[in-house]
Every structure is written in C-alpha cells, then in structure tokens.
Amino acid sequence: MAGLIFDPDEHGELFSAYLDGELTPEELTVVGELLDGDEEAIDDFRSIQSIRKTLQLLPEFEVPAALLPDGHLGDRLSAYLDGELVTLEHRRVTKHLVDCADCRAELQELDRARIAVRSLPGVETTMTSEIHATPAPHRRRRIVAGGIGAAAAAALLVGLAVGGGDEPVFILDDLETHHVARASAEPGFAVLPPAIQVAAP
Amino acid sequence: MTDELAPTWEDVAHRYGRKIYNFAYRLTGNPDDAADLVQEVLLRVRKGLPSYQPGSFDGWLWRITRNAFLDGIRKKKRRPESALPEGDHHALGSSPSPDEVLASIRLSDDVQSALLKLPYEFREAVVLCDVVGLAYDEIAEATDVPVGTVRSRIHRGRKLLREMLTWPV
Q1: Which residues in chain A have Cβ-Cβ distances shorter than 8 Å to B135?
Q2: Is the domain of B71 the same as that of B103?
Q3: Which residue range forms the structural domain that includes residue B19?
Q4: CB contact, 8 Å: A56 with chain B?
Q5: What confidence tens digit (pLDDT) does each residue in B153-163 have?
Q6: Which of B44, B76, B108 is the last residue of a domain?
C-alpha cells in the first residue's frame, strides 16, 4: 500500500500487462501493492481478467482443409527440373544434390525419363499431368500406365523400361521418400509405343 | 544434413494456417475474408521465404499477415459494421466461476460483435494477444510500433470491450 492510490487510467494498464506476464519486476511490485486490500483496484483487476479470459476462450475455427497443401511433393520435382521453383525449396534440393551422389544419379535418370516422355509423338506432357507406369519385370518394351487415384497418397513407383534386345536400357524404380516422381497419362492413354529408345548413360 | 534452414511454406501452412484463419475471422467476423487472407498470406510466404533472414519468424510471419490483411481491406474498402444486439449482454461475476466461463463462451457472438466495433489498432492488438497468443514484443514487430504502444492498445481494447459488454467494474 504505502500510500499508493489506485487510478484506473494509470494502473489499469499494469493489470492488463500483469495478466499477460509482461511486467518488469518494479511494476510487479506496484501491482502487488495495489491489489493488497484496495477493493476498487481488485474489482478493476478482476474485470480485466474476465474479459481477457473470455477472449481467450472464444471458440477456434478450423481452417478449411482446401486452403492447405496436402503434404505430398506432388509436382515439385518436375517443377524443379523445369526451373520453376524459385523458393527455398530449390536451394534445399540443390544443396542436397551437391552432397548426395545417389540423388544426383536419380535426378539424371528422372531427367532422361522426362525427356523420353516429352519426345513421345502425340502425347502432351505438362507439369500437372501424370504418368503412373509400373513395368512388368518380364515384359520389357511394354509400359502399362494406369490412373493414380487413391494411390496418390502412397509413395509412387515409377518405372520406365525402354530399349532394344533383352537389356533394359533405362529403369527408374522405387522413388519413395525423397525420390518421388509422378508419371502421367491422360485418360485413354494406356500403353507407350515400344519404339522409344533412351541411350544408356 | 546441414540444410535445416527456415521452414518450407508447406510447414508454415500447416503450422500457422489455423491461427491465420482465426486471426482474420476475428478481425472481420467473416469466413470468406478469413479464407482469402489465408490464401494470400501463404502466397506471400511462398514468395518471401527465399529472402527470409533468420530471426523472429513469428514477427516476420505476422507482419506479412497483417499487411496482407490491411491490403485486402484497402482493396475492398470494406468497413465492418455490426451492431451489438440490444439487451443481450449478460454480466459475468467479478470472479469467473466455471458457470461464468461457460456463460462467456455463449457470449461469443456478442464478443465478436464488440470486437468489430473496436478501433482497428485496438482490435488488432487484442486479437494478436488473446486469440493468436503472441507476446507483446512479437506484436510490436508485427505491427511496427513500440512495445509500450502495444501494451496500451491491448489494455484500451480490453477496456472498451468491457464497457461494450457491460462488464461489471
């Protein structure tokens, strides 16, 4: 107390900041003195406490899920190959590629696959279209493309097996975790022509 | 790996999307405006992350959020105008009991209406503090004013709300 007289204009702000844990030690002492038996100060303090609590208890709204990304890499790898990523993601990927020979090799193969797909006659490829192709191990020269559907949530297997003779010239497989690629097909596009050749590295 | 830098924009979206949405909702009382703001902020975050300098991420993000919000207001030239319902202001006890806390939740529409009647600076400070949960220094960084101003605005905002909601003094 020590002669401290409560002034709502002067001290109310201290109560507010006290409740938010934003006071200096000196101010804390003042608040302690004000609340020591001064009914008017105590009432003021409690009313601020009530309104603060009411605001904090306002129900929280859920943000509509459509506004948030789905968490998958999606077309970012293709966008990366196309030089479309100018965000930090690009730097992160680049940095990783410098350190990781496996990923560099993966990227080269992916790039060849992209070039191969782009060179297909009569098939348009875009960043948003997808090929989902899984090669049958004993049926080279054939690539079956199917829809992705619900499997989009899972790691995608992408395979391209093209080449002559019995030796597969080019295979992409198991692009799980940080090696996600999406291959694509428009509806009605089921089998790639067997004549596509990709030179071995 | 040494590439643990700033979060990706997807991280930001998932970690902060809900807070940003609620921030805008409480400032405007309008879910469509809140959704617009989330989209705009995420877009700006995506563009801005490459130039983000490590520091107070919250301060950076909420400054972006606040600026996007104000830009949206300027574009739409919208002024929220929502009258408080007459005769529907229940008084809470001077010390909140569980019943009174429940009553305060039922009052949320009234509180929302009262928030919309606050001057923008006070409303923003109160929402950033009590709804978003930022510290005073983070609010100061986001709103580009000194901490003392933040403190004053929060208190004045709460006082005005108290008066509008006929809080007992």
Answers
A1: 20, 22
A2: no
A3: 9-76
A4: yes
A5: 999 999 999 98
A6: B76
